[in-house]
Design goal:
Blueprint (H helix, E strand, L loop, with lengths): L1 H13 L13 E4 L2 E3 L6 E3 L2 E5 H7 L3 E5 L4 E5 L4 E5 L4 E4 L2 E4 L5 E3 L2 E4 L2 H6 L3 E5 L4 E5 L1 H7 L50 E9 L2 E6 L7 E5 L4 E7 L1 E3 L1 H6 L7 E5 L6 E11 L2 E9 L6 E5 L4 E5 L23 E7 L16 H15 L6 E5 L9 H10 L4 E8 L9 E5 L4 H17 L3 E6 L3 H5 L4 E8 L3 H7 L2 H19 L4
Parallel strand pairs: 1-13, 14-18, 24-25, 24-26, 26-29, 27-28
Antiparallel strand pairs: 1-2, 3-4, 4-11, 5-6, 6-7, 7-8, 8-9, 10-11, 12-13, 14-15, 15-23, 16-17, 17-21, 19-20, 20-21, 22-23, 27-29
Helix pairs in contact: 6-11, 8-11
């Protein structure tokens, strides 16, 4: 327990805090609601909070090695190893090279590091309150009590820092959206999303949720989830209006609620800024029971309505409203072959490029669905082409995809490690989707089952549909590498991916 606590605090201390250019003495930091007093103060450099790594790491029992000659810091425990070099804008995490927006630096013989991606990997929820210059951090177990996992509130969190797990050297989309820490507002440096729709009212009367919006062209999505029963409404390219925000009692975790007493259908309604890129407001109706509903939008006035007075949405049909097929009757599934062209991905023991496996595997999946009556496959790339991570997300959004799957092969600096892993970023339907895909994938690979893991990866974090990333096997393991490039193995894996997609969508394989 002490070790776990140390890890979480370690991640917090390494986390980058945006939108500050003042002295670090004014910074207030809270972990699970408790004020913290760091033993060594950080410095604000180019709007990033830089933390002395040696003091923090050694106090918390992690192993850290410093090579003065090469100015290299290596941090490791029994699960993860990472290497950083002073003034270099990349790091190596478990054998993969990832990019950083702000490199480590050396000040008065003290190594300072900005490692937002480390914090994300460790699962902290981080909120910035500009009014008080405070950082609120919540561990995963604590935040699950404060805010249900389908509302991972990180108000105004900019997309800074490196991308991990995806293996690309282009982890950031190059923007730095400012925030007032709670409303996705416009303070801070960097480019700011313009012309956002404003959420002006959120009311619940006569079993109807009515959301007043400033614009008529919003495109909300809705999803019905179970265990517990709830309805999730996402409104992309939106934020709370200043008047609405100031009238609400938003908590430190960025969430506000409508509490309902003795209501037969609903326990409460909660809302927050779910994402800042794009700026997305999420509203969740926590149900007391499985409940049918109707979802509509109106113009003049511009409203979004969830009507619980009966309706056409059948709560017992086992389908996910977030995966309703389009008008042509087909589900759209995006298959993303990781890396490509100038980005080779990981390099295998025999000097093969990961990008080649990823593409071959993606093409085999697409071929299996070529004449499928229910599913249409969209490939992010069908040849040796390079796409930025944000471009892969754009492909999925423009296709109005129902599902997103990114295909990769893994690597690590230990040749004995072998097996199949599946990653997700969002504790909404993505977790369930990842679990279904993984159970099918391991049957196809017949490699060791290394489990389903949560990690903040750009393509699974920034997509708006259920999304997962498949690490099929390890290029750095002799057995895995030999299998990955075999045609029979790829055919078997392609079939397992198809089976997983069909199972999740409730279709016959």
């Amino acid at each position: 327990m002490k070790k776990i606590g140390g890890m979480l605090l370690f991640c917090f201390m390494l986390f980058m805090v945006p939108n500050m250019s003042h002295a670090s003495a004014g910074l207030q930091i809270y972990l699970n609601g408790v004020s913290l007093s760091p033993s060594a103060g950080g410095q604000i450099i180019k709007d990033y909070t830089m933390i002395p790594i040696r003091v923090v790491v050694e106090e918390l029992g992690f192993q850290v090695d410093w090579d003065k000659k090469t100015r290299t810091v290596t941090i490791h425990n029994d699960k993860t190893s990472m290497t950083l070099v002073v003034d270099q804008k990349w790091a190596t995490v478990d054998g993969k090279k990832v990019s950083l927006d702000m490199p480590p630096t050396l000040k008065s013989d003290t190594t300072l590091v900005p490692l937002r991606f480390v914090g994300e990997q460790m699962g902290l929820v981080v909120n910035w309150e500009n009014a008080t210059k405070s950082v609120y951090l919540f561990t995963s177990d604590y935040s699950s009590e404060v805010t249900k996992p389908d509302v991972p509130t990180t108000p105004g969190k900019p997309d800074q820092g490196g991308s991990t797990g995806e293996g690309s050297n282009n982890g950031s989309d190059g923007t730095n959206n400012g925030s007032n820490g709670s409303n996705g507002g416009n303070s801070g440096n960097g480019s700011v999303t313009q012309d956002l729709a404003e959420i002006q009212t959120v009311t619940f009367e006569d079993n109807r949720l009515v959301v007043g919006v400033s614009k008529s062209d919003v495109k909300p999505t809705q999803t019905k989830l179970s265990n517990p029963d709830r309805i999730v409404v996402d409104i992309p390219n939106a934020k709370f209006s200043d008047s609405f925000f100031n009238s609400q009692n938003f908590a430190a975790n960025g969430q506000a609620e409508i509490q309902l007493t003795d209501h037969p259908l609903v326990s409460k309604i909660r809302y927050s800024l779910f994402s800042s890129n794009p700026s997305t407001v999420r509203i969740v109706i926590d149900l007391n029971q499985n409940q049918a509903y109707q979802f509509t939008t109106t113009k003049d006035p511009n409203t979004i309505i969830v009507d619980l007075n009966g309706g056409s949405t059948d709560p017992g049909n086992g389908s996910n409203p977030g995966t309703i097929p389009p008008a042509n009757g087909k589900y759209v599934v995006v298959i993303d072959a990781g890396h490509g062209a100038k980005d080779p991905g990981a390099i295998s023991l025999n000097k093969r490029n990961e990008k080649d496996f990823n593409l071959a595997q993606a093409l085999k999946v697409a071929e299996l669905f070529q004449n499928d009556p229910d599913v249409q496959i969209v490939l992010t790339r069908s040849d040796d082409t390079f796409l930025e991570l944000k471009e892969r997300v754009t492909v999925a959004k423009q296709a109005n995809a129902n599902l997103f799957i990114s295909i990769h092969a893994n690597s690590i600096n230990k040749a004995t490690i072998s097996g199949t892993e599946t990653y997700y970023s969002r504790d909404d339907e993505s977790k369930a989707f990842a679990q279904v895909m993984h159970s099918n994938l391991v049957q196809g690979t017949k490699l060791p089952d290394r489990g389903v893991r949560k990690q903040s990866l750009h393509v699974t974090r920034e997509t708006t549909m259920p999304a997962c990333l498949l690490e099929v096997g390890y290029l750095t393991n002799q057995t895995d590498e030999a299998a990955l490039y075999q045609d029979d193995f790829q055919n078997r894996v392609a079939q397992s991916i198809k089976n997983g997609i069909k199972q999740y969508l409730g279709l016959q394989p």
